[in-house]
Amino acid sequence: MPDGTIDPLHDYVADLTSLARERWSTIAAARADALAVQSLLLDKLREFTSGDVDVIVFGSLARREWTSGSDVDWTILIDGQANAQHRITAREVERTLGNMKYKETPLTGPGAEGIFGNLAFSHEIVHHIGGQADSNRNTTQRILLLLEAVAIRKPEDELAGPFERIIRQILNRYLVSDSTFHSKADQESRIPRFLLNDIVRYWRTMCVDFAYKDWEQGGKKWALRNFKLRTARKLLFVSGLLTVFSCFQNKSLRRNGGNRDDYLLKLQAHLGSFVHSTPLNILSWALSGIGLRSECCDLLDIYERFLRLLDDPNLRNHLNGLAEDGVYEDERFLECRELSHELQAKLKRVCFELDSPLREFTVEYGVF
Amino acid sequence: MRIGFSTGSIALGNVRLGLSIARHGATSAVELSALREEELDPLLRSLDQLKTELSKFQYVSVHAPSKLLRLSEGELAAKLQQVADRGWAIIVHPDIITDFGLWRKLGKAVCIENMDKRKTVGRTAKQLGHIFEELPEATFCFDIGHARQVDPTMQEAESFLEAFGKRLRQIHMSYVNSQSHHERLNYESVLAFQLVAHWLDRSIPIILETPVEKGEVDEELAWVEKVFAAVDGLDDRVGKSSTRAP
Question: How many CB pairs below 8 Å do chains A and B form together?
């Protein structure tokens, strides 16, 4: 395992460009566009934030993978006194976004599922991890806050709003409630299994929900959703897995007989750095750190092609219009499917076939 | 352990009344509050007259005004020179500082406090680091209640102590609620403070910013004992049955 921790501000993908066979121009453009949209939102939405309220964006915008078809998936995150005014704030955020454009194109709000474009409260997110009250919506909000979320706030305003405060409390819950975790952490760094299990659970939830939406929506937009599930959503899961993997045999995270509370806070800070990074950077950091740079470049090549396809409005329209029963005869869908198979094969090689700490970790913790 | 109260938290601007309550029980430290600008001149004028009352305390500090409406920053710094000359700490909120040169003249008497979540500067160790770069001699007033309000997991509290532990001159202790009001210590605050208690040198004075009546002083001091119970190896650690307990 690479020693130390990730720098959330560092662009690890850029570090690998000299080794790349292809130019990752779409990845670079998607990152630049995402940062530009975030900056635009900061300008317009700052007035809706406070010490108790943050506007959070998720999805491709938070992953810094903005393409021409990206939506602004947002949520009002609240950590403070209940206030009926929050609903009015949410409506005003929706209205403001509805009037905004980026590169002459209107920004599009979230879909109709209700996970986004809504209010989220800290108490549910922090306290209901597992159990009857941990609804699909709550799990989704919580895990996405960890894996692909950004607060519309200046970077130097860290801890001024609820986002960072809640992130730390969620991570704290995963560590403190993992009863076997801290008592045995004297020599080797330990794996936060509670967190790992929730990330794995969420990935499987996304897959199950894919089938659910297919059933509910009668196959509408099946092809595009399938393509995204097999690529962007899968890589999101991998980044969560690699976040936990970063604790595996990590010498800098050993407790070494030190104070237990210090150890937990150190681990919490370590995991928090990953929350503020992106899936592509986490992938690049982790694989570079275990000597798998070439494989990482292969994965980034595939992802570059994925983003290029996704950035093509003709292809998106085509996939959106495909009927489910005809997709396997459609050349363009089969092209997308082939790309997702390449990604799967490469991830399989990296996680299960090549001799590395990642293989050891995946076999030991990834399945059972 | 040197421990005591802020006169402001128990009697607002009435320093004499504050001292009369603050001297009860096993207190040996006191902070004289001039949190409001108009309280500063009366406080400074009375310092010599308060010699007898103050003689009970091993440690005395002064809290500078937190907002300047009539005084200029230069006038404030000049007035506070007499406090620095007594060798006392001057507790300063970092957001009132705009001209660092004025405060540099007061040397180590300047004791910078970390802020609550309402403030735009001084909430995090990173933010306070910029202040100490400008004021290399300044000391640190660790407001553990503010640190808990900003980050209830106490990760930020630990960052403060790791970064500025060597500058630590005074500790502020209270329960700071979500509206940023200082309240009396309670189970929740003590549970959080215990997480970083082992970082706190017991020789550092603790000033309670908790609103207590005369008859409540001992009870409040007992809460502080609980903060350090685990460090001292005592068995009355709050929350010992929780998953966080050893």
Answer: 56
